[in-house]
Amino acid sequence: MFALPHLDLPPLRAAAGSVRLPGSKSISNRVLLLAGLADGVTEVHGLLDSDDTRVMLQALQALGCSLERDGARLRVHGLGGRLRVHEAELFLGNAGTAMRPLTAALALLAATQGGAFTLRGVPRMHERPIGDLVDALRPLGCTIDELGEPGYPPLRVRGQAGGSLRLDAPLRVRGDVSSQFLTALLLALPLVSDAGDVVVEVEGELISKPYVEITLALLARFGIAVQREGWRRFTLPQGSRYRTPGVLEVEGDASSASYFVALGAIAAIDTPLRIEGVGSDSIQGDIGFVDAARAMGAQVQAHANALEVRRGRWPLQAIALDCNAIPDAAMTLAVMALYAQGTTRLTGIASWRVKETDRIAAMAAELAKLGARVDSGDDFIAVTPPARWHAATLGTYDDHRMAMCLSLAAFNALAGAAPPVPIRIEDPACVAKTFPDYFETLLALVRADPAEVPVITIDGPSASGKGTLAAALAQRLGWHFLDSGAVYRATALAALRAGVSLSDEAALARLAAGLALHFDGARILLAGEDVSDELRREDTGALASRVAALPAVRQALHALQLSFRRAPGLVADGRDMGTAIFPQAPLKVFLTASAAERAKRRHKQLISKGIEANIADLLADIEARDERDRSRAASPLRAAEDALQLDNSQLGIDASVDAVQQWWRQRNPLDQG
Ligand code: DC
Q1: 155: which residues sit within 8 A by CB, 6+ positions away?
Q2: Any catalytic annotation for residue 658?
Q3: Digit-coded pLDDT (tens) for 352-383
Q4: 629 lines ligand 1 (CB under 6 A)
Q5: Distance between CA atoms of 197 and 255, rounded to whole angstroms?
Q6: Is the terminal CB of the chain with fewer CB neighbours within 10 Å at N or C?
């Protein structure tokens, strides 16, 4: 959701609650390929919905698989190992888990059944090696053209119907650059196992073995029993056939779990953080991250399909670890190292260099910006926590894991940063690769000191365009939005419905204190009922203005309004946001526009909604309301002394938002220097 150029996180201080993980990326894309190749229909539950699975689904559709969606379930009608489409151009984004196995499967299918398929991706995909896989396939008789640099996508695989493959000798594949090459072969070779056993031998030390374990476990679910001799030799028995398991449940993503395990270890101080979707039953190697986190101090209780994490040792303990078995989750350890005593040294991570970005270089550069001391080499990184933390703008390199990891640096207050510093995450939307809602999920679990959460107040008279401006600004910044007028309007509506007299101040205050009001995006719910339209009516506004004049009502609504001040920030609009509710706000804006201009705007607004209106009446109304809001004793409408005035009579909405955003940049520490 955060389609922003950047997201600023204020200092965060605690975390609690429960999170349900999105489906595992590794499992999702393997299952999709197997279901696509199998005979019959596979119903997949809990599939990850992300960039990487989307490109795989599009590829399957382009190849003639039909897909049916039913809520969170997906039914895949498999090809049964027979090509239905013999020519296709596939775009695979930056998904290695789609590019490698599809290359293998289509190369084998084209070589035997005939066809020509092009596989390409984003520019970074074209920098990620695939030569070892090509080298393994060519000796069989597969024709593979490298359309760009030798050894890299884009590729074209092609062949003639009736072609045969040389499968009597073992295939050889290197295992020391990426385990995905071996995975690709194991997933695809059952397609051509009719004539005899197919043997794959691994050359060099096989890295990331746990990912190969996922491959073997899923092949077994599809009826294929690979025989394995150590990690060197794998045999697909003659006549291996993909058989759909019918229904398949995708586990939560264990690599995604690592951010929340780390969050718990750092910030679940009072109550544990519950993580649902993976646990001790997981087939994903990255669940091994839990042991590494424990070694650093996390207290983790593992259930079959859930984890409960809380802070144990604090500060965390530095570790030295060979991370070959948990390459993706190991990135999270590099960030936990910021909170550890001593230097954390992670080795066996050469594969980081060929992932979404060169992750060793990226991590070293970004952690250094925070003040950490970082040493790195071909296959290791060593991190010593900052002696002094720096507010920093952190690059994410179009790498989802960089963005998710670096967000954890916002807890620097807990490491004693004095003062605690905010951080900026660039291009937060890159998490869409595996965890589209990551930042929303994180922010729902964390607590900040309200005084450290930035607030921009937008006050002004009726119909000055505050609401529109404030909502648009909140959206641009990715902040929360408080429409305080709606709070008074809802109080008035609740009073009307409950038959409370507008002259009974005490009863109105009691009602206000117990108001069951919920903001759900653009909808406003009162006791569960959507009252958005009713609240906006003119007569509700007029009643609100009367209710709002009562000091006891204003007092009763004070705490509710304060509770909106949550990370990452708040834009609050009303009459007294800058004067009474958030007097310490770092930026206060007072909107002015002539009464005539405001009457014109309100008129246009009403007409567009099909409501009849007359400008002269509206002007009289607005002037009367201004007078009442200004002259009341309790929090009268006026500009805070340090408010910046914005006359938007002549400004469109974008220009008004630009103006306020510019003022915010001048005050935001992350925009200085
Ligand atoms: O902004 P609005 O028109 O939705 O506000 C409705 C009424 O509530 C308005 O007449 C004044 C009152 N109000 C207030 O007194 N203090 C606020 N912070 C917001 C609104």
Answers
A1: 103, 118, 119, 120, 130, 134, 144, 145, 146, 147
A2: no
A3: 998 889 999 999 999 999 999 999 999 999 99
A4: yes
A5: 34
A6: C
